[in-house]
From TrEMBL:
Protein name as it appears in the record: Ribonuclease HII
Function as written in the Swiss-Prot or TrEMBL entry: Endonuclease that specifically degrades the RNA of RNA-DNA hybrids.
Transmembrane segments: none
Domain of life: Bacteria
GO cellular component: cytoplasm; ribonuclease H2 complex
Annotated ranges, domain RNase H type-2: 69-258
First-level EC class: hydrolase
Length: 263
């Protein structure tokens, strides 16, 4: 008879042989029953996540069935912040890719996002990222800057896509066939993958900016108008990455605080 610690070791593996599970189901030891219960719950969760992934592959599968081969998900992050760039990502997944737990990046923990970020970069067929900075946002306006970032990300891909799935941004008269959907990062695995790549990239970028401009808590707010960020703006004025046509930045500039003051 196997010891409890030996059974724990076996069930710590990703896959457990069916014969072992069937044999242990007749084991009356409480410790074994707990191990089996825990294992069954994990398997149920894995099966649930697998089914959810399959549901979110609906649009990709429809494209494959219509003869498209390189389906690209496109998403952006950073429309709302008061500082920093808007960042877009374009991702072409392989048809047999599976990323457990993939979802809209905003619904994932930081740990899960970063885990998926590394996995997507390693296993996807192709991905690309584009940043459009605050000066360009002022030039184009935030909506058009987001579109520019998305299209530049697509152009940077090492593999040219033949169909685009885009989050909430219509691409009329674009040379690549495409479909835009609201909340696409919740409905399409390709768009969800792009949202993860874009968000992790931008969050890390804002963490780097926080070292250069330490007053604004960019490492925690990613440029959004949190209380601490607004207090720093009132005390120190703006810094070079603030979006000068966004409120309340515009009001601060009009009040004469158009440059970051020294400590």
């Amino acid at each position: 008879m196997m010891k409890i610690n030996e059974i724990k070791e076996i069930f710590s593996q990703e896959v457990v042989e069916k014969e072992i599970i069937e044999t242990l189901q007749n084991d009356e030891r409480i410790g074994v029953k707990k191990i089996l219960l825990s294992y069954n719950k994990k398997q149920e969760k894995k099966n649930f996540l697998k089914k959810e992934y399959e549901k979110k592959s609906f649009y990709e599968n429809k494209c494959y069935n219509n003869g498209y081969k390189y389906i690209c998900g496109v998403d952006e992050v950073g429309r709302g912040p008061l500082a920093g760039p808007v960042v877009a990502a374009a991702v072409i997944l392989k048809q047999d890719n599976y990323f457990e737990g993939l979802n809209d990046s905003k619904k994932l923990s930081k740990t899960k996002r970063e885990e998926l970020y590394d996995k997507i970069k390693t296993e996807a067929l192709a991905y690309a990222v584009c940043e459009v900075d605050n000066r360009e946002i002022e030039k184009y306006n935030i909506y058009n800057a987001s579109r520019v970032a998305m299209q530049k990300a697509i152009e940077k891909l090492s593999q040219t896509p033949d169909f685009l799935l885009i989050d909430a941004m219509p691409f009329e008269n674009y040379p690549i066939s495409n479909f835009s959907m609201v909340k696409g990062d919740e409905k399409s695995v390709s768009i969800a993958a792009a949202s993860v790549i874009a968000k992790v990239h931008r969050d890390r970028l804002m963490e780097d900016y926080s070292k250069k401009y330490p007053y604004y808590d960019f490492e925690n707010n990613a440029g959004y108008g949190t209380k601490r960020h607004l207090e720093a703006l009132d005390k120190y004025g703006i810094c070079p990455i603030h979006r000068r046509d966004f409120e309340p930045i515009k009001t601060i500039i009009q009040g004469g605080k158009n440059e970051q003051r020294k400590k």
